[in-house]
Design goal:
The chain is mainly α. 65% of the residues lie in helices and 0% in strands. It is built from three helices and no strands. Helix 1 packs across helix 3. The longest helix has 20 residues. It is globular and about 35 Å long. The chain starts with a helix and ends in an 11-residue tail after the last helix. The mean pLDDT is 86.
């Protein structure tokens, strides 16, 4: 159940990005997703799960060198 919840949160992030290739994800994409979450009516716990699961996903991609860190917003 926990793995399924994580997968669904990550899937929603990728769907929000219109299934953009992982190597194309930029910091501004993540910022826009967070802004999108802020506009939705979510419980704090749900919002935090989205952030936690997607943060862990992005960290995994960086550690495995699938993507490079991107600290610029423009």
């Amino acid at each position: 159940n926990s793995i399924y919840a994580k997968l669904k949160n990550i899937e929603q992030f990728l769907t929000y990005l219109d299934n953009k290739s992982i190597i194309e994800i930029k910091r501004e994409d993540v910022v826009r997703f967070i802004e999108h979450l802020n506009k939705r009516i979510l419980k704090n716990e749900t919002f935090n799960y989205y952030i936690l699961h997607n943060s862990a996903f992005m960290e995994y991609l960086i550690v495995t060198e699938e993507i490079k860190t991107n600290t610029s917003t423009g």
